[in-house]
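Contributing new records

If you add data, match the layout below exactly. Sequence lines come first and carry their own label; structure lines follow with theirs. Keep one chain per record. Anything else will be rejected by the validation script.
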Amino acid sequence: MKIALLRSPLIHSLALFLLMAFGWHSQASADMVGTADLLASNQVQQQRADVQTFLARDEVRQQLMARGVDADAASERIAALSASELATLHGQIDELPVGEGLLETVLFLLVIFMLLDIAGITDIFPGL
């Protein structure tokens, strides 16, 4: 009797109605992406790539190691920077002449970011 009840058209119709009404209901939403948002995203990606390329240079890595900074850790920290912090760092790299001043500025900014993170003012480096 139970098997026959499960095969009845009424049960099938009720199950189908319940699945359609409650079971597979999902809502999708989408917004338009503006040109300015897309350009800003591309600019941030380009700036991050530029800074990472700068850090990948041999002379920069040697200077970082000479000052006791792990180049891989610096690269991870650069990847964790927000867009505004990255723009500031990228602007400093573009403005300064090539040489010691540039590396010192990058190291100075990394130290400032680390101190702000340790103090709890920002959450740039989640591992610290």
